[in-house]
Structure formats: C-alpha cells, structure tokens
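Glyoxylate reductase/hydroxypyruvate reductase
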Amino acid sequence: MAKPSVYVTREINKEALAVLADTCEVTFWPGPDPVPRSELLKNIAHKDALLCMLTDKIDAEVLQCAKQLKVIATMSVGYDHLDLKEIKKHEIKVGYTPGILTHATAELTVALLLATSRRLFEANAAARNGGWQAWSPFWMTGPGLEGATVGIAGFGRIGQEVAKRLIPFQIKKLIYFNRSQKPEAESTMGAVRVTFDELLQQSDFLVVCCALTSDTVGMFDKAAFHKMKKTAIFVNTSRGGLVDQDELVKALQEERIAGAGLDVMTPEPLPLDHPLFKLKNCVIMPHIASAAVQTRAGMAMLSVENIVAGLKGEKMPSELTL
Ligand code: DGY
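Predicted structure tokens:
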C-alpha cells in the first residue's frame, strides 16, 4: 500500500524527518526562508498531511488546493496563522505544540525583561563605543525587580512559568489578568487576579503572555498605554498583533512608559527602518523565545508524532479541539 504523503514547509531536524519518513512519503521546502506561497500552493495538492510553521498562512486559498489533506500539524503553540473555521469545514485535524516550549519561552521572557529594564544592550554598546567614561552614580540605571509589582496578561502555562521565575527576585506583588481564575496559582504563588485596567495601572513590569485571538487583537492600544505607569516596562513574547504598534512607538517616544522588550512584532521581520529600531528604550529580539536547541527539536518531533497519529486516524498527542 502506498505511504501517505506529507509536505513539510521547512527543513527540520534529521531525527524528526526520519521518524516521519518511516511511515510517510516526505517532501519538504529546503530553503532557510519560509516557503514561497506559490510553492506551498503547488506542493500541497495531492498531499495527505502538512507540517507547517507559524510563518505559513493556512487559509481558504491553501485549502482549496489541498484536495486530499486530512491532517495539519503546526510546529508552534500559537495557531493564529491557521484559519480554523475553514479548516473545520474541510474536516481536517490540527495538531500543535503546547507545553513543550513553555520553559524555553518563560526563560527568554525573563531574559528580555532584564535586558530591557537594566538596559543591557544600551550599556554594552556604550562600553564598546567609548560611551563608558568612568563609573558614574546614576548612569545606565533602570528599575529593579525587587519590591516591584509584576503584572501578567494571560496566565496560562507560559504566564505562570514566567511568574515562577520572577518571584525569587523578591517582587512585592504578582497580579494577573486572565479570562478565568487560577485558584491553584493564587494559593501557591500568591497571585492576585485583577481587571485589565488594574493590571495596566499597577504593574511596574507588564508581561504579555496571552494568545492572539479576535478578542485579544490590539488590546494594548492608545488607552492602555495611557493608563500604564510612566516607569513601567512592557514585555511581549506572545504575538505582535496584541499590540497597537504605532501607539507603542508613541508611548516610548513620549516616554509615557519607560521601556519595551519585544520578541514579537508586526510585521516580522520588522523592517530595518522601523521607528522601534530607533528607540533606545526598546529591545527587539527576532521571535526567538522558544529557540532552545532541545525545545525546537522537541517541537519538531511532537509535530511529526501529531501527523503520524492523525494519519492513522488515532488521537494526536497534541490535538487542537476545533
Ligand atoms: C509559538 O510556538 O507559537 C512561538 O511563538 C514560537 O515558538
């Protein structure tokens, strides 16, 4: 019997490809960049499964070409690049990779927060370019975490792991904004659930960990930045679409907030002439929160396992409920 066919939109690690090739006929896009749209549309025809990345928009046009597609596995926890309504119409199963990247993402979020608040890149640049003249009492100072109120928007797996890593810095208060209450985190971490306005008004450090959905898109808008403390540090490792980026630029330019650390933005990659790159009080990372070696290998393997199980008609290890 012929093996089912799978299209993989990027070259993944050998171990994961080998497991996939055991039971499937595999074709993949070999380039280091995302697969061009035309290639995706051409290659998806006559494939039973698709292993894609968050850079691939899977919408009605793709599904139109994918007449025999039964399974999609995205190598990401986020799935805002998938048109779930359309996918459901076509009765296609979807797998994703939650859980496995939680720790790596939390780790990077803390690194980004500290790099932003303690001005690590600015200080490093000054040390290298002659800006460091003598030790100076108030030069390169930034807000410390000790005694601070940390606010987390989106208190799921990643938000809670970020909180766990920040508590040992002797913060004063941990507050969160989330659709549902998290009683266990409240009792183990002393986290306090607040309204969105309270989160904005009280946070010294505001960390965004929520998923991008039609409810959360643009939630950090002009009004939100106006409610934040002038001394606040804003950190986003979730999705750029949660933020009205023009308003963030204005808030940083006018120093209505103290700084921003961003691992995600709109668009990605951010154009080199974008105003965010001109701001000293903004630290920009190229969407690397989950980029720990073992994490990315695990994400690829979980995606493969999702495909294999889905094609067998079994429940995927990480299946999205549509
Ligand atoms: C995801 O998986 O959605 C992250 O943004 C990248 O790992």
